[in-house]
Amino acid sequence: MKKQSAPFILFIFLLSILGGCEKDDVCLVDTQSTPRLIVKLFDKDDRLLSKAANNVTIYGIGKEDPLITITTDSLVLPLKTGDAFTQYAFLLPTSTATVTVGDTLQINYKRYDQYLNRSCGYRANFILDKKTISYPNAAPIWIDSFEILIDTVSNEQQTHLAIYH
Questions:
Q1: 2-11: which pairs have CB atoms within 8 A and are 24 or more residues apart?
Q2: What is the count of structural domains for the chain?
Q3: Is residue 8 domain-resident?
Q4: In a domain, 69, yes or no
Q5: Is 79 exposed, middle or buried (0-12, 13-18, 19+ CB in 10 A)?
């Protein structure tokens, strides 16, 4: 009698475990995570005309490896969730390997967290500080100016920052 009831008890046990899972127990792949900053590059002389960059390499300040080398008119940049600002160096190619020219851009923001659900936890959203995007090291070389188009970074479907070069 024991041998015949063991599979039935095992089946009931597994069914109760699987039936106990809820929708919030698994974070789906398509759940939107912390959004990145969307930047579009424009011509400084005709501000409505997008303008691609010529092999500008972007480094996160304090990082050795480049984040991206841009050859298009759009880029996606992550913001630090643990700090109130993120700095990027936009370095231009030169004919000599010993000379580096470029701009350092500091993006200041406030972070607010949004609760998604029990399994995914929180995601960070950002509000760009309009007054404190700056060039911390020197006067700009490559970037002529910039404009915050949308100050709330909560999705990656819209352009947040325009850079004119």
A1: none
A2: 1
A3: no
A4: yes
A5: buried
Q: Judge whether 142 lies within some domain.
A: yes
Give the CA radius of gyration of the chain. 24
Residue 17: φ, ψ to 5°? -70, -50
DSSP 8-state symbol, 18: H
Is 80 contained in some domain?
yes
Q: Domain span at residue 35?
A: 28-164
Single out the residue of 39, 61, 36 nearest to residue 124, CA to CA: 36
Is the pTM of the predicted complex or chain greater than 0.85?
no
Handedness of CA 79, 82, 87, 89 (dihedral sign): negative
Q: Which helix (H) or strand (E) holds 11?
A: helix 2-19
HSE-up (13 A, CA, CB side) for residue 95: 0
From first to last of its 165 residues, the chain has per-residue pLDDT tens of 556 666 777 777 666 666 655 555 677 777 778 899 999 999 999 999 999 888 888 999 888 888 888 888 999 999 999 999 999 988 877 666 655 678 888 999 999 999 988 888 899 999 999 776 766 666 667 888 889 999 999 989 999 999 998
